[in-house]
Specification:
The protein is globular. The chain has one domain. The chain is mostly helical. The protein binds iron/sulfur cluster (SF4). Iron/sulfur cluster binds next to helix 1 and helix 2. The site of iron/sulfur cluster has 14 residues, from helix 1 and helix 2.
Length: 87
Amino acid sequence: MEWIHHAACIGTDPELFFPVSSEGPGARQREEAKQVCAGCPVRQQCLEWALESRQRAGIWGGLDERERAALGRRRANRLRSAGGVAR
Ligand code: SF4
């Protein structure tokens, strides 16, 4: 994970990336975390790592858990449509 050394979130409170709720202060926290990710030079690597390691909670690569799950399903469907094997 060499890429982690270039992360925009270095020095940021890690709790920012793990909102306790999806509403109210939690929603604002989620958006604030996503803004940090939006300017991150290793966003794609972070997202791929989160998908591969099946991170269930938190904001990784600018996506929250629901968005990552949706992306995973889209990729699996594309792979199945192309005749590949989806895990
Ligand atoms: S994409 Fe977001 S969570 Fe991932 S390394 Fe960058 S700032 Fe941190």
